[in-house]
What we know:
A 7-stranded antiparallel sheet has the order 3-4-5-9-8-7-6. Strands 1-2 form a two-stranded antiparallel sheet. The protein starts with a strand and ends with a helix. The protein has a single domain (2-150), classed as Protein Transport Mog1p, Chain A. The chain is mainly beta. It is built from 4 helices and 9 strands.
Amino acid sequence: MxxxxxxxxxxxxxxxxxxxxxxxxxGIGSGWDRVEEQKQHRVRYRRGGITVLVVLGRDSVGDHGxxxxxxxxxxxxxxxxxxxxxxxxxxxxxxxxGRTTSLTESTHTLTDVTxxxxxxxxxxxxxxxxxxxxQVLGPATRRExxxxxxx
Length: 151
């Protein structure tokens, strides 16, 4: 998976390789099953027990502030982690790129709905005035595979 700037285009939901009007584009390789979640403005890509969750431009800096670390504390996609009393966060870091772009990366373990230990790699990027979110989710036993997907 790779990320790059691209010309403005239609919202992520309408494109097989998601890109936002802000110019963020995500390359998804072949062989992934694509599932749109229109109400949540997200797209899930699934293959071999790993899920890539993409939310491009749903939330604004105006509504959530300009700190991607603070945004993670309320983003809906991490709600199950926050609700799990045994959930753990690790490798949390913020990267500032120039004066206008910030990126946050973090990893999380939590108990999923089946009672199994799950792993989440979360990446949030502010581009323009919108949050771009990429999560890779899978069983904790497949952490290395999930990490390779987002590397």
